[in-house]
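Thread title: Can someone regenerate the structure for this chain?

I was given the following input by a collaborator and told the matching structure tokens would be attached. They weren't. Posting the sequence so someone can regenerate them.
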Amino acid sequence: MCPQMPDPTYVRNAFARIADRYVITNHVLSFGMDFWWRHVVTKRIKLLKPNNLMDVASGTGDLALKIQDDIPGCEVVATDFCPEMLEHASSRGVRKTLVADALNLPFPDDGFDVVTVAFGLRNMGDYPLALREMRRVLKPGGSLFILDFSLPPQPLCTPYRLYLHHVLPKLAGLLTGEKDAYEYLGGSIEKFPSGQAMIDLLQETGFANADASPLTLGVVSVYEARNG
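Best answer:
Regenerated them for you:
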């Protein structure tokens, strides 16, 4: 059973408030590791030689830009339900953006070779519905990549939780002036299914060959699955 889902109105408003400082704040809070995480995902996608790709919950377009730059033959479409975030994605060079709700994507069935979602599924109001929508727009045999936070095993988990719930919100508050938006972050990571729980959820929503790869001692995980 999935945990209580985030409130979409709160999430949209929170991201709208931090949009202007979102990119630099992420780099600082992750100690620059977010560049490496996106590199790992993009490298895997490049092996698939996709013709097109949709980046769901693209935000300010960090992953979409990385894929667009590293896989020039792939048409990248970045979607997000927060217009303020996508404005930054466009201004930073993402060529195709569309304001869209991940729970009701405005695309036909079987349209994309690859779908990605980086640090976004965790913020959606219905994880299973979002995953089914992503599967719907994937071509048969297409690939889904999820990049998101996870809780590392002990002994790292205890100090990580201390950072997540006490240090990170204060630091983010100094950088953005929006401490409460990052207090939400810690709670959302605690509730988000990770590891085997995410693999089970992917299988329950119709994906096959689901796999989890922990990065940075398990602070982040990459999940890859196929549509059928």
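DSSP finds nine helices and seven strands in the chain.
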